[in-house]
Write a structure and sequence with these properties.
84 residues, mainly alpha, 434 Repressor (Amino-terminal Domain), 58% helix, globular
Length: 84
């Protein structure tokens, strides 16, 4: 299984935003964010929108950054590349 919220992590890195900034934006502590980044608990819709605002993520891209279960399903072409 892949790393949880990989696209979100990459965007945080590109923007220079850490977990503390995410925690502050959603009104919680670091441990709260860590629990969600590891997929042990789900994000609320309000948290997702606040994080999108902080990271300048368009709302139509929410599924990319917050996939169900935290891990995006590979595209069919990605499955083929693994077999080769």
């Amino acid at each position: 299984m892949g790393m949880k919220y990989l696209e979100l992590r990459c965007m945080m890195l590109r923007r220079g935003i850490g977990r503390r900034e995410i925690a502050k934006a959603i009104g919680h502590g670091d441990a709260y964010v860590t629990t969600r980044m590891h997929g042990h608990k789900s994000w609320t819709l309000e948290e997702i929108y606040a994080i999108c605002k902080l990271l300048d993520i368009p709302h139509d891209q929410i599924p990319l950054y917050f996939p169900l279960g935290g891990v995006a399903k590979p595209e069919p072409w990605q499955k083929e590349a693994k077999r080769a």
